[in-house]
Every structure is written in structure tokens, then in C-alpha cells.
Amino acid sequence: MKQPLPVLATKYAVVFLAAASLGLLGLLLLKSIVDVDAHFDSWWYHLPWAARLVGLISPEAFQFEPIAAVRYQGFPLLPEFLQGVLWRVTGRVESANLVSMFGLLAFVWFLQHFFRIRFWLAVPALLAVPLIQGQATSTYVDLLANLAFAAFLLLIYLAYTRENAVNKKFFVVLVLSAFIAANSKLQLIPLIAVGTLFAALVLRKQLGRAIGFDGKPGMRSILVVICLSLVFFVPLKNLALHGNPFFPIKVEVLGHALNYAEVPPPKDLHAGELADASRVKKWFYSVFEIGMGPVIHVKRWSIDSAAPEGSPMGIQGGLFGYYVIFQLLLFGWLLVSGAARRSRVYPLAFIGLCVMGAALMPASHLVRYYMFWFICLISLNLHYLSSYSLTIRVGFSALFFAVVLIVVDASDQNFVRPKFKSLAELLEERVNPNILESARGKGNSCLALDRANEPFLYASFWHKDSHYIVKAGPFYSSDPVEIEKTCGNRDIIRSM
Length: 496
Prior knowledge:
Layout: H1 5-34, H2 40-53, E1 62-63, H3 66-74, H4 78-90, H5 98-115, H6 119-127, H7 130-135, H8 142-161, H9 168-182, H10 189-203, H11 207-211, H12 217-231, H13 233-242, E2 252-253, E3 256-257, H14 279-287, H15 321-337, H16 345-359, H17 372-385, H18 390-410, H19 423-430, H20 433-442, E4 444-448, E5 469-472, H21 480-487, E6 491-494
Parallel strand pairs: 1-5, 4-5, 4-6
Antiparallel strand pairs: 2-3
Helix pairs in contact: 1-6, 1-18, 2-4, 5-8, 6-17, 6-18, 8-9, 8-10, 8-17, 9-12, 15-17, 16-17
């Protein structure tokens, strides 16, 4: 029996959308493999840390710039370790990009497995977010951390809203997602602690039965302690070694400052004309990209939320404000007329708590730090859309792809187009031969350059038949006392 034409057209549309999703992922995967990441933070500390962690470069051969050095002692290092492993196995620094890419692929699988969201619906919905599209092929750790944290929160939501959701696989993924998030981003650890309390409330009766320890409270307690120790390894390690769970960041307890080496981000961090505004107001301006100019302005799109000149804040945006509005309106429509209507208290409370958590955190206007709430919103919308007809889901997928194309065009294809930029090209572009010769000639050098991400490019590791030591001196500093204090008895080389 022949199928009706509309049904046949819908099936062909699914095939097309699936092919387009795979093509988009394939393009990003190719870019991850062939393009060296040239962004600021990558060469300031992500790649130097990755090289140190897996023994590619010794502490003697290259010594970190002061801020990067203290952060190395206290910040979570899981993403950099994974980057280093891939780098060492393949022999290519470009492979470090794959950690973010694999994180995105894992999250798409997560949505398919736990929320029955087809990948051809999830891929365009997620990649319509500029920060996700851009960071998927970089060594920045924000995407991996926020995807893992979003998965953790979504599983807690699932436990509250679906009977018999908790089983061994659920528990393993819950712990793994919390472990990845907490060991990837220091700023997320307080939020993960709050999420853990919510998880404990719903799991306290189901956990024993789910993992096979029903009637064995002792074994269950041991397992919980082990899991919590793994998840909160970084603050526990910092407390033991430095007396401050958030070292090197300054933390005060009852008016007493714990051991620290760095003060928290100032209230006016790149906040421009909103320097004195509340965190919530700055977050609101950043999320909805108020005052940032036309969408087609290519300088509006970056992986570190740097805003174009004339914006209210120096760091602002990255989620695509119009797309945020669309997803919020979709959420409201689903609550009123869709599958979410039967239990609207849970999704409202869930998204409300996620938004509060993001908006009230320090430096909340740096939305790349806290994009988990928007990932949760998109995922929840897709979850409820999955109960609709195939025709409606196809329509929304096509709409998401339209937004993806807008982002691709507005960003001049910088996030998705492989440029085949090699390490050799980056070194030729960034390394001043005069500075390099000075470092080689002096043997034990301290590079106090204008940019913090420059010194690692001068390390002897990158330059054939070179054997010399480089220490990264303080950047953006013209104070000779500070430079001499950092560099010690090494020969100081400055920007030329």
C-alpha cells in the first residue's frame, strides 16, 4: 500500500535533516582535527598545562606565567589532562581540540538515550548557540564543563519527574557527569554542591535498590563517600594542600581570609558602562545581547564573549539573544499547550533554579562560564517536543537549522569552516625571530612579553635543535620591580 504524499515527504525530510546534522558534525570534527587553536587562553594556560600534565614539556624547560602558575596548583585540570593525552597519542597539538568535540557528541548521545531526543533535532538546536558552535573546535573548557553540568542537572530533573528512572546506568552517568563538570570548571563547583543536595533528596530512597545495595546501608554509604570524593576531588585536595577549597581564589570565612594567591573577579570585570550594576542586570544584558549592535556584525561573534566596540560591556553575549528569546517563548508555549502542561511545576521550578544559579554567580555576564542553564532549557524543550508528531519535530528541526545558518553567515563561517591552519603557520605568524634568537642565545630566559599567550610559543619544545629554558614573566606589566621579582636571575627579554 502506497503511503500518503505528506507522510512520504516527512520521511524524506527526516533523512535530509539527519544527513545535514551528520554533515555539520563532520565539518566541526574535521576543523577540530586540522586547525590549530589560536585563541588567547589556549596558549596562555590550556595547552601549557596539557603539555606539563602528560610530560611533553618539563617544568624546567618552560615555567608558567605567575597567574597561570598558581591556577595550575588549584584549578581543575581534567580537560587539559585529556587534551594532553590526545596530543601525546597523536603527536599533534591540534588533537587537543577533540576533547570539546567529543563532549558535544557525548551530550547528543545522552539526550537520545535518556530523553528520547533524535540527534537530527538535538544537533541543530544546540549548534544554533554561537558559543557551542565556536567552542566545539577549541581547547576552551567551558563547553565540556557546562555540557556535563547540564547533563547532571537534567538527570536530577528526570529522577524527580519519571518513575523508576534511577538504575545503575542512571547512577553511573549522574556521577560521571558531576565528576567531569566539577573537575573541569572551578566556578561550577558551588553549583554542583547545591545540585548534589537536590539529588540526595530524590535518590535517598531509590539508590540502594537501583545499584543493588538494598538493605546494605553500610555498602551504600561507602559508595556514596567514594563518589563524592571523586566529584569534589579538587576542593578536597585544595583544602588539604592549601587550606582553601577554592585556592588560589580568595575566600573569607567569618571575616578571615583563607590562604589565597588571586582575588576573585572584580565586580566591574570588563563591564564597561554597567560596572556598578548588579550581577543580575549584567547577566540580563549579556544573555539578551542588549546594545551589541546588528547581528551581522562579525566582531560580535567570538568564543570568549568579547563584545564589539560600542557595546555596553567589553565582555557580553554569546548565546544569540534572539535565539534565547525564541527558546523561552517555546518553553512557555509547551507549558501552556504541550506535554509539559501536565506537570508544569517541575519544569518551571527547574529552569527557574538554573537561571538563578547562573545570574547570581560572580562574573555572571561572562555567559560562557554559565551557559548550562540555556543548554538545560533547550534540552527540556526538545524533550517535550519529542512527544509531538514527526511533522512538527521536522518543522522545528528545520527552524533550528535556519538559526544555525544565520550564525554561520554572521560569524563569517569562522566557527565551522576548516582553515587547515597548521602549527607551523601559527609559529611563523606569532613568533618574532628576534625574540626567538635572544632566547636561544641567552639559554635561561624570562620572557616578559605584552601578551600572556605568547611565551609558550617561544619554548624550545617547538623549535628544532633548540635547548634553552623559558619562564613566562608577568604580562601587561611595565613595573621593573615586579618583572625582576618574577624573573629572578634570568635574562629578561621583552617585546620588541
